[in-house]
Amino acid sequence: MFVRSSQTACFSHLYCPAGMAGFEQLYGELKRRRVFRVAVVYAAVAFVLWQAAEIAVPALNLPDWALTLVVLLSLLGFPLALVLGWAFDITQEGVRRTESPSAVDVPQTRVPRWFRRLEAAAFVFAAVLLLIWAPWDRGGAELAAFSEINFLDSVAVLPIENQTGDASLDQLCAGITDEIVGQLRRLGAVKISDPYSVERLQALGLTTRQIADSLGVHKLILGSLYGTSADVSLSLRVSDSRDNSVLSTGRYPGDPAEGFNAAVSMAGAFVERYLENSRITLASVIEGPSPQGPGYESYLIGKTAVARRTAEGLARAREAFNQALAQNPDYAYALSGLSRVYSLADTYRYQLGGEGYQAAGFALAYANRAIELEPNLADAYSARLLIARRSLAPVEEVAADCERTIALEPAAADGLSWCAQTVSEQVEVDKGFRAAEQAIALDPQAAGRRVALAYIALQLGRFERAAVEARMAWQLEPALMLPRSLEAWALLLSGEAQRCTGLDLGPHAVVRATCLSALGQTDEAQAIVDSVAAALRAGDFQNSVFTEASRAEDLAGYYAWIAEPMESLAWLRRAYELSPTGVEPRLLESALFDRVRSDPVFDREVEHIRSEIWPKVLTAERAAYSQLFERI
Predict the structure, then answer these.
(1) What is the 3-state secondary structure (H, E, C) of 13-44?
(2) pLDDT confidence of 14, banded at 50, 70, 90?
(3) What's the distance, Cα to Cα, between the start and end of the chain in Å?
(4) Do both 248 and 159 map to the same domain?
(5) Residues 33 and 110 grouped into a single domain
(6) pLDDT tens digits for range 149-195
(7) For residue 244, what are the domain limits?
(8) Sign of the CA dihedral 356, 360, 366, 369?
(9) CA distances from 618 to 358, 366, 387, 580, 613 (A)
(10) Residue 219 β-bridge partners
């Protein structure tokens, strides 16, 4: 019987007898050829390369796939390095092929077993370290994906003009505009500017070219409605904003007797033709519901009012959404609108009836009900995302709502902005910053977009940018006080406390006191702080437009600045007792709290306090849902 020799049964002249002796000789040969050393050195170099790439890719504005390519190439090169390490040696005479055991004197000294185990453990440790630090997953890869959305086209829709002479068709025009925006927004390939910003720029008297430049879009959609209340025709024109040339025109008939269904059908016919003319190929798009129907007019009023973020605007929005629900109790868009009202009222610290945890419970209950009624409603998922993120829900729950929101409406400014804030808190601040900038590009006239970016800039330590964005926010909406306090914190942290003291901060007197303290005016600062603290303990702010939580947050920041961790902790605890938003997370993570963050008691207590927030909100949600919907 033919028996193949042990040497020919093995590769590259490796003598491989069976059993433990064979393993020891294999181990010795791997060590002689320095394969282990090659593996460890390669792993160390790859690790350094990955870290350098993570810094260089965003700094050089390279696409995200560049980092993926670096990782992939380094992984593919690992087995090649081992093969080369086996086959070749680097010597003083250059690179040459490793000689077989028969051609060299192989030391016969037995390697201690403990040393072999230690060396093997070191190799395994290096491999595990590479897997842990691989840059494709930082504990939130699903969130990081939201920071980069590449649009194939960019467009703004100007309000449809009613040329029929029949004022009763004004709402049909508004419905057509809203429906075109909604359908384009769901495509994902088209950057579509938010109607709120378009209308504000138009109200300023800007030309169409100036509007397009302000929004950063290449195309404008302009249209008019002609005809009578019995028979109408929609005329739409797509123009190139750069030279005002007409790219396409079309007429779309409709029957006003069909109500808002006419708006849906006319908008749908236009969008289909728009995509054909633009030659945009889309992947499958999840069909979302239309807001058209009973209560739609009230919904549009509330939608516009919410965008302002003022106390008056949110109160008006709540009234409008409730009017919509009176006409249609199962109107999911109005339910998600009410969820936003309660979340934003707590975010901007307004007393709107139902404060703190009760407001959060209402917000979550309304969002959950909207999702039950319309599982493909992006507005509802973004509303739930907002309250969940603000209430410190588990990151996997927030990430799921982020993913659903972006999948349903990739070009919606609210969803993108709120996902950006989640990215900045849970994944990487730089990625969240870029996503927040994209949200501003979609909706540059909305103060809320500026506030979100200012907070992320503050967290990043980009204090000048934070101050600029905060100032732009309150200039857009002068009644807003939150961005004024945010600008003051940014000026303080950038070393410009003197400018901070000159701002009109309204209810944020303690922020001004912190700036005075930084200027050495400690007695005046402490007098302001003591006055606000005494009024807060006495309940003097219960009838104010702004909640007590805003003052408690400011006091926590003041004592953090003067490095008194226990006083800061006491007011931070009070802020979280009053509201699940307590102290804004990005403010807490900023340099304002650097002087107390290292205190072990402060750090431990903050984590404990924050861990109790979400369970309290869930309890409040169950009570709110029972009160609002169980009778249905």
Answers:
(1) CCCCCCHHHHHHHHHHHHHHCCHHHHHHHHHH
(2) very low
(3) 86
(4) yes
(5) yes
(6) 677 888 999 999 999 888 888 888 888 999 899 888 887 778 888 88
(7) 153-278
(8) negative
(9) 10, 13, 11, 11, 9
(10) 155, 240
Secondary structure in 3-state letters for 328-392: CCCCHHHHHHHHHHHHHHHHCCECCCCCHHHHHHHHHHHHHHHHHHCCCCHHHHHHHHHHHHHCC
With respect to residue 584, please indicate whether it lies within any of the assigned structural domains: no
The helix (run of H) or strand (run of E) holding residue 232 is strand 231-240
126 and 226 share one domain? no
Residues 46 and 126 in one domain: yes
Q: 273 and 162, same structural domain?
A: yes
User: What are the tokens at 368?
Assistant: 């959950």
Check whether residue 29 and residue 121 sit in a common domain.
Answer: yes
* Residue 55 shares a structural domain with residue 82: yes
Q: How many domains does the chain have?
A: 2
pTM of the complete model: 0.74
* Two structure tokens written together for 577: 């007792």
Backbone phi and psi for residue 72, each to the nearest 5 degrees, phi listed first: -60, -45
At 97, list the tokens. Answer: 């092929």
Confidence of residue 17 (pLDDT cuts 50, 70, 90): very low
Q: Ramachandran region of residue 409, left (φ > 0), alpha (ψ -120 to 50) or beta?
A: beta
Average pLDDT of the residues in 81-85: 63
Return d(Cα 273, Cα 43) in angstroms, integer.
54
**CB neighbourhood size of 484 (10 A):** 20
Rg, Å, the chain Cα set? 31
- Mean pLDDT over 498-509 rounds to 94
Residue 76 in domain = yes
Model confidence at 63, in pLDDT bands (50, 70, 90)?
low
Dist CA 116 CA 127 (whole Å): 17
Residue 57's pLDDT band, with cuts at 50, 70 and 90, is low
Residue where one domain finishes, among candidates 84, 108, 136: 136
Q: Are residues 90 and 171 in the same domain?
A: no
Length of the chain: 632
Instruction: Point out the domain boundary residue: 237, 252, 278.
Output: 278
Q: How far apart are CA 462 and CA 174, in angstroms?
A: 40
Residue 561 CA from chain centroid, whole number: 28
Q: Evaluate whether residue 86 is within a structural domain.
A: yes
What sign results for the dihedral spanned by CA atoms 511, 513, 517, 519?
Answer: positive
Q: What is the CATH number of the domain that holds 264?
A: 3.40.50.10610
* Amino acid sitting at position 527: A
Quote the CA–CA distance of 455 and 453 in Å, as a whole number. Answer: 5
Q: How far apart (Å, rounded) are the C-alpha atoms in residues 446 and 543?
A: 28
Number of H helices, E strands in the chain: 29, 8
Q: What is the distance between the alpha carbons of residues 484 and 470, in angstroms, rounded to a whole number?
A: 7
Question: What average pLDDT does the segment 572-598 reach?
Answer: 93
Is 189 within a domain? yes
Q: Comparing C-alpha atoms, which of 244, 247, 226, 227 is closest to residue 235?
A: 226
| 438 vs 575 pLDDT, higher one | 575
